[in-house]
Amino acid sequence: MIGRLNHVAIVVPDLAAARALYRDTLGASVSEPMDMPEHGVTTVFVDLPNTKIELLHPLGDNSPIAGFLARNPSGGMHHVCYEVEDIHAARDRLVGKGARVLGDGEPRIGAHGKPVLFLHPKDFCGTLVELEQA
Ligand code: CO
Hints:
This protein is of the alpha+beta class and 134 residues long. The chain has three helices and nine strands.
């Protein structure tokens, strides 16, 4: 059911430093920082030949990643995102197999303007999983 790895998201305490690390030390192509107030994050996209890395930093007072950064002050891997063809069909299949969908279970529009869902990390090997309808 799942398709390509769309991105891996990494929460970082210093976005400028992380951007410079990926650009100058790792030699990757990086975007300018982009504020996404509706998601409570500022993001830098790192373009790799086969996928993307998203560097995330909290934005605003109620950022959904503030708690993660408090628990992981040097940053860390936050989630992986897999592409699916039909997000409602994927959701129904997963719920039918006992997996927990976060929030109200309805897809919402993610950082790329496409419908996304998040799956409970305890049901997926301790990893927060995002599904994005490709
Ligand atoms: Co994501």
